[in-house]
Design the sequence.
């Protein structure tokens, strides 16, 4: 298998959806996939059978038009839309996770600074009281 980000089935479905206006040829789809993936013919045939010719929920096989061009079934368009939305949701959740970690870190630092300031203030008050006591003792 060649290096790619998406599974070949998603790339194939995306090709079908992107070429839905003018229609797509199965051989052109196969050639396109062969440039990106090393897929077996039987897997490609299974994809065409299950996703294009006879998608789930259909009783009868779909046929290509007179010019041998296919348009993708709505279920395939939906799958690509869902896949893209899922990928976007994953990116957003990773970003939100990073931001939440940053917020927690800022909160910890702020709390630590607050605690240090409390101890420093108490130390100043104690030193001030000692100084007052020494001044009182010195003035007597």
Sequence:
């Amino acid at each position: 298998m060649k290096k790619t980000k998406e599974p070949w089935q998603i790339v194939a479905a995306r090709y079908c959806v992107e070429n839905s206006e003018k229609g797509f040829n199965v051989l052109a789809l196969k050639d396109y996939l062969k440039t990106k993936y090393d897929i077996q013919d039987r897997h490609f045939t299974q994809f065409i059978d299950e996703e294009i010719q006879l998608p789930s929920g259909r009783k009868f096989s779909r046929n290509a038009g007179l010019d041998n061009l296919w348009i993708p079934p709505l279920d395939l368009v939906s799958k690509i839309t869902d896949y893209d939305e899922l990928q976007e949701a994953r990116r957003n959740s990773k970003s939100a996770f990073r931001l939440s970690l940053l917020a927690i870190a800022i909160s910890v630092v702020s709390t630590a600074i607050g605690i240090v300031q409390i101890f420093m203030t108490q130390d100043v008050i104690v030193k001030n009281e000692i100084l007052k006591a020494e001044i009182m003792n010195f003035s007597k």
